[in-house]
Specification:
single chain; 129 residues; alpha+beta; Nuclear Transport Factor 2, Chain: A; 3 helices; 48% strand
Length: 129
C-alpha cells in the first residue's frame, strides 16, 4: 500500500485518472483546500510533482471487504516548494479489479528531518497491504 500511495504523490494525471473513484474528494491545507473529481486532475496537471517521498504507515483498517482506510505520516520535497510533512488518510474502495482512491485528507505538520526510508513495516491485514 505504501508504494501505491507514494505514486499519488509522484505521478501525474494519467495515474490519477486510472486510480480515482468517481466522486473522489481530496482535502489539503490552505490555500488548496477541498478538490473534487476534475478539480483534482486539473490541480495535478498544474503542480510540480513531489520527489523523495517517505511514507510512515500508522494504520490500515479494513472497513468492509471493499473499503479500507490507510493512515500515515509523510515527508516530501519538490523543487517549487519548501519541504513538507503531514499526517494523511486515504479511503479506498475496491473497483472492478483494483483499489480506487475515494477520499484523501492531509494535515500539515511542522517539517522535521525526513527519515531516509520507511521507518516501519505495516502488518498485513486480511491479505491486504
Amino acid at each position: 500500500m505504501c508504494e501505491f500511495e507514494r505514486r499519488f504523490w509522484t505521478e501525474g494525471v494519467d495515474f490519477y485518472r486510472a486510480h480515482l473513484a468517481a466522486g473522489c474528494v481530496m482535502v489539503f491545507p490552505l490555500p488548496v483546500g477541498q478538490l473534487v473529481d476534475d478539480q483534482i486532475l486539473a490541480s495535478i496537471g498544474r503542480a510540480d510533482r513531489w520527489r523523495d517521498v517517505v511514507i510512515d504507515p500508522t494504520a490500515l483498517y479494513p472497513v468492509t471487504d471493499d473499503v479500507m482506510i490507510f493512515s500515515y505520516r509523510a515527508w516530501a520535497e519538490r523543487s517549487s516548494a519548501a519541504p513538507y510533512a503531514c499526517h494523511a488518510t486515504s479511503v479506498y474502495r475496491l473497483g472492478d479489479s483494483a483499489w480506487l482512491l475515494a477520499f484523501h485528507q492531509q494535515t500539515q505538520l511542522e517539517y522535521v528531518t525526513q527519515p531516509k526510508a520507511d521507518t516501519r513495516a505495516l502488518v498485513e491485514i486480511d491479505g491486504r497491504r
